[in-house]
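In response to reviewer comment 3 from the previous cycle, which asked for concrete evidence that the modeling workflow produces usable outputs, we include below a single protein chain processed end to end. The sequence was submitted unchanged, and the resulting structure tokens are shown without manual editing.
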Amino acid sequence: MIMSTNELIENETELRETGSIPLLFEKENFKDIFPEHKKLFLFLDFDGTLSQIVNHPEDACITDEMKEVLEKCAAKFKVAIVSGRDMNDVKRRVGIDNLIYAGSHGFRITGPGGLSMEYKESEKLLPALDQIEEKLQDRFSDGPKGVQIERKRYAIAVHYRNADEGNLNEIKNKIKNVLDGYSEMKTGKGKKIIEIKPDLDWHKGNAIKWILDNLGCWNNPEVLPAYVGDDVTDEDGFKMLYNNGVGILVGSHGELSAARYKLNDVDDVYYFLQKLFQSR
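The workflow returned the following structure tokens.
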């Protein structure tokens, strides 16, 4: 039986506890990991990577210093933002024109030179997402308190960061009841979030490969792709680049990881970006 790219990657990937992943700046020479002769292609998550995690998703932003260092990096090598946020939302929050943006975990992609993609199977599921959003708003109108429903184009996020931890089972049960009968949808987890999205074989890792493919950089020995992210959904990116790139986890998400290296927090990401553009 012929295995898909995703299946092959899963079989070749070694997962480990996040506590055993070496800190990027402590274990090896930086230039050994990012040699100067390689063309760097940098992929970055947004929340928890470029922006601090906040109690309300609409409050997330990047600092002026982070924006400045991103602009400096983009002047020297290709930079893409790969986020669970809607593409237009993350593009507005970053506000740099010459970057590539992949939103909704890669279901929509745009970039310089006419780079554009909208995953073909997802648009027909918009009516179902509309229905689910309406039902969730109704179901959670009477509580638990602190739950926030965030609609994206191809996903719905149920945030419970501000809810009582004791209500988590009730929150999960309400979501499960709403999704009964919607076999075309699936749920994913993250940091204090449950996300409802189309049950399609597409994720951040596929989006990264699509971008690299379309720019002639996939499996190109002259190109070194790297992905930096902080959450469980970023593991698909780490796995996709496991054998031909560098995966970097920010902080910890409490599960096994395919990342090669680790950064402590958003401040470390800023320092990492400074080191990258200075080394080029």
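The first strand starts at residue 39 and ends at 44. We consider this sufficient to address the reviewer's concern, and the full set will be provided in the supplementary archive.
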